[in-house]
Design brief:
globular; four-stranded antiparallel sheet; Glycosyltransferase; alpha+beta; 2 domains; two-stranded antiparallel sheet; 437 residues
Length: 437
């Protein structure tokens, strides 16, 4: 083989060096762009919770937070309050509000929760933001109360002292056992005091309710505490979509693999059946994205960077049926129309970082997707003209904010997992720590 002239070797070496340096520069600029987009989305999501709350200290509904914006201005969601309470320390840690501002808001909110109507510690799903009274004849909700209590315990752990006392009082008065169907050893989904039967639906399949079992197992009141068999009684249907099998939810909606993980760090714990729920969500996220790729020939909104099918607003109203295979028992429980919510992918950033960042880069290119509180709830490009949601929804802004914070520094996980009730729940539910060799 002939040797290349020295001058050519020098030129090739210089070109290689320049290419490498340009590659580093491009990568660094791209990283900065994504991180800036993440910070902007976090800050705007935070301000939804901070600004769209009842801030009248003389109001019975002080601290209650709207279900959505800008529609339905009088309707607060109890789950939104749970995410919003968690948002306060995030705002403090990021310098968006002061410690004193956050603590004042939290204390006032906890006092409101102590005073508004509840049933054995459980709250109505939707309440009037000004009065705290039931709205829309909504149900007393087990899961929405659980999401609220996650936020309550989180602020108690963060602030300590008076806040911790109030938080413990609210948590310890919840009679979790009251909401359990003793014949099936399963949680009911809802309670209607004005219907017969009063308790309706069961958490009989895997979904977002994991946090229910932790909260219900850690309470110090033996009468209120559930038997661990309740956790081990719901159906675990394990199937795969072009990959590793995982325990799937009924509609395959991505939020079901995210919500409990916003507070509970499942990465290094498994239950006595060997289930690692964190890895389960990793596989569910991969499946959701792959399904969107595979369905791109049917829905032009779907692509490798436009995925994350989950409950959100659509062109025909709110739908909880958006999801991916596997779903139901015959893979037909999910119903898509091409709608994609940014919260779907973003809420999985701790499970699939690279692919979620690519999705965020794509979201940044969609005209009119951003509003006062960051990404609007969803978009759909199936019709003659692009459709962009007019609203943001509290729980979707919540999972976005909390998971982005966990991605950045694990703040929510680290704070919440210190709580003594949660640590006791890990023991009572017979979870064990994974030890790496």
């Amino acid at each position: 083989m002939k040797k290349l002239p020295l001058v050519i070797l020098v030129i090739v070496s210089m070109f290689t060096l320049i290419s490498c340096e340009w590659g580093k520069k491009t990568t660094n600029e791209d990283d900065k762009f994504i991180e800036q987009a993440i910070l902007e989305e976090m800050e705007k999501s935070f301000y939804f919770f901070y600004e769209q709350a009842n801030t009248d200290p003389d109001s019975p509904g002080y601290g209650l937070i709207r279900d959505r914006y800008p529609d339905n201005s009088s309707i607060a969601s109890i789950a939104s309050v749970g995410f919003g309470l968690t948002a306060i320390p995030i705002g403090i840690e990021n310098g968006w509000i002061t410690y004193d501002e956050g603590k004042t808001r939290v204390i006032g909110t906890l006092h409101t929760l102590r005073n508004i109507e509840h049933h054995n510690g459980f709250y109505y799903h939707f309440v009037n933001i000004n009065t705290g009274k039931r709205e829309w004849n909504s149900e007393v909700s087990s899961i929405d109360t659980a999401l609220l209590m996650a936020g309550v315990l989180f602020v108690g752990e963060y602030f300590g002292d008076e806040v911790k006392t109030l938080a413990s009082e609210l948590y310890e008065r919840v009679n979790w056992n009251w909401f359990v169907d003793k014949n099936k050893n399963m949680f009911y989904m809802s309670y209607y005091p004005d219907r017969t039967p009063s308790f309706q639906g069961h958490w009989d399949f895997y979904a977002e309710q994991l946090i229910l079992y932790f909260l219900a197992s850690g309470t110090p009141n033996e009468t209120y505490r559930i038997d661990p068999v309740v956790y081990y009684s719901f159906i675990r249907d394990r199937r795969a979509y072009k990959g590793e099998p995982f325990i799937h939810s009924w509609f395959g909606s991505l939020f079901t693999y995210q919500y409990s993980h916003a507070w509970i760090d499942f990465r290094d714990i498994v239950d006595k059946q060997g289930v690692n729920w964190f890895e389960n969500s990793v596989h569910a996220t991969i499946a959701n994205r792959q399904y969107a790729i595979d369905m791109a020939n049917q829905f032009k909104t779907f692509s490798e960077n436009s995925w994350g099918m989950t409950a959100c607003d659509g062109p025909n109203g709110y739908s909880g049926l958006y999801g991916a295979k596997p779903s139901g028992y015959t893979d037909d429980a999910h119903k898509n129309d091409g709608t994609i919510p940014p919260s779907g992918a973003i809420g999985s950033i701790v499970f699939l970082e690279k692919e979620v960042k690519e999705a965020i880069r794509y979201f940044e290119t969609i005209e009119w997707l951003k509003g006062k509180y960051g990404y609007k709830d969803s978009y759909n490009f199936e019709g003659k003209t692009p459709w962009i949601a007019s609203n943001v929804i509290g729980i979707n802004k919540g999972i976005t904010l909390l998971m982005l914070q966990n991605y950045r520094d694990e703040f929510v996980w680290k704070t919440f997992m210190k709580n003594e009730y949660i640590q006791q729940a890990i023991i009572n539910l017979e979870f064990t720590t994974i030890y790496e060799d």
